[in-house]
Amino acid sequence: MASTLTPAPLNVTIREQITMNGTDYGGITRYTVNNISEISRRLVTTNGTSSTEVIRFQPSASAGQFINTDVRYLRITNLDDTNFATLRFQGSASTDYSFRLDPTGSFLLMTTQDSGSTNAGVTNLRTIKVVASGSAVDLELFVASE
Q1: Edge-to-edge order in the sheet of strand 96-101
Q2: Which of the residues 68, 99, 104, 120 could staple to 57 if both were Cys, CB 3.0 to 4.6 A apart?
Q3: Contact 43/138 with Cβ under 8 angstroms?
Q4: How far apart are alpha carbons 71 and 55 in whole angstroms?
Q5: Residue 4 confidence (pLDDT)
Q6: pLDDT at 114
């Protein structure tokens, strides 16, 4: 059976709204990712005391795992209104960095590939783990792939 799924563009809009002293400093940025044929959207409750792996990237897809070269957009949103979470990004070359995700905040990633520098950033992202700030937090994960 041949697939009837037609790849579609993903349109992302980021909007800031702020007026200070009568001047509008807000802005709108639009980003389009073409040829998206796989979407995953899920809610995850983290463990409040230890690391929880929420996404894995490998050369082949399986449950909770995405093809690392096909991911084009990823968003992680902290749905908790009180507690922050720490995102840990681990690469294939033991590259690792962390990012604090404040309550109700979001983190966006447009690709799983590094810019080419092997000494900075994540080289070939392999996993994203979350450590909550002492209490479990709910996260929304959205992943779009070719």
Answers
A1: 65-67, 52-58, 125-132, 85-91, 96-101
A2: 68
A3: yes
A4: 12
A5: 86
A6: 52
Percent helix, strand and coil across the chain, each to the nearest 5: 0, 55, 45
Residue 143's beta-bridge partner residues? Answer: 40, 74
* Beta strands 65-67 and 52-58, pairing class: parallel
pLDDT at 56: 92
Which tokens in the block code for residue 132?
A: 């909550």
In sequence order, what are the residues at sequence separation of 6 or more whose Cβ sits closer than 8 angstroms to the Cβ of residue 111?
71, 72
What is the reported pTM? 0.86
- The one-letter amino acid at 13: T
Rounded Cα–Cα distance for residues 5 and 32 (Å): 19
- Reduced to 3 states (helix: H, G, I; strand: E, B; else coil), residue 18 is coil
CA 116, distance to chain mean position in Å, is 20
